[in-house]
Amino acid sequence: MKKIISIANQKGGVGKTTTTVNLCTALAATRKKTLLIDFDPQGNSSTSLGFDSRKRYPSIYELLTEQLPLKTICRQTLIPNLSIVTASEDLAGFEVEFSQDENRVSVLKRCLKDLDFDYIIIDCPPALGLLTLNALVASHSVIIPLQCEYFALEGLSQLLQTVKRVKKNYHPALTVQGIVLTMFDGRNALNKAVVRDVRETMRSMVYQTVIPRNVKLSEAPSHGKPALIYDMRSVGAQAYIRLAAEIIRQERKNNDKQS
Ligand SMILES: Nc1ncnc2c1ncn2[C@@H]1O[C@H](COP(=O)(O)OP(=O)(O)OP(=O)(O)O)[C@@H](O)[C@H]1O
Ligand SMILES: [Mg+2]
After folding, report:
1. Which of 48, 102, 145, 168 has the fewest CB atoms within 10 Å of its CB?
2. Which CATH number does the domain housing residue 174 bear?
3. What would the pLDDT profile of 200-241 be if each residue is shown by its tens digit?
């Protein structure tokens, strides 16, 4: 099984990177051979796993521009079964450099052929530009982190429109794998109302697991570690373990249906 999943939302700061890093770690901990692709010029996933995002070594940009193959760029993290392709600022040039290329939406897809991973998870930047488009075209599915705040649903409809457009124009098999609610604070009435609203509107698309607002999740990146390593018993880390279990169950169900 090889499953490529984009973690996407054009809204900034909703928990894409936190979800990518901790979900990848939880999947790797269950012995799934996992590759994290940092696809954001901010390089936050790279720093969160202890890789300096300043240009010290080849990164995703050299892969996209065909200067180096994936096996040269792919780095083993400190977590067994988890590799990473890092990103740095030069990735921001991709959109301009490839804007006239006739295959510009499938550059990443071409780079991900014939890989031996159970899961490839792509951390997208906060925009619906050419980078996110490339990530969606390269993926089987997309997981959308939604912050439990007032404007969450507005941003969601725009993203779902984009997914529809990608399906229609480039990739009919692309699916929305699920929506994960993030940064939930049980003491905040608005947060609770948003969870209720999103569940009512999106129904079974929303994962049961809700990621709580938890200081360990925000502290961990400054130590260059996933929260699952920084403090495995924290409520944040435990929530991501539950999310990974939910996703693995979902995969099994889907595979059973297909066979
Ligand atoms: N559940 C949480 N509890 C507390 N802090 C969180 C949680 N999830 C994310 N954060 C913090 O919120 C900030 C934004 O999170 P994150 O970087 O994961 O979002 P993002 O969607 O990747 O942002 P960007 O759009 O800039 O890429 C970070 O400082 C992160 O540590
Ligand atoms: Mg991010």
Report:
1. 102
2. 3.40.50.300
3. 999 999 999 999 999 999 999 999 999 999 999 999 999 999
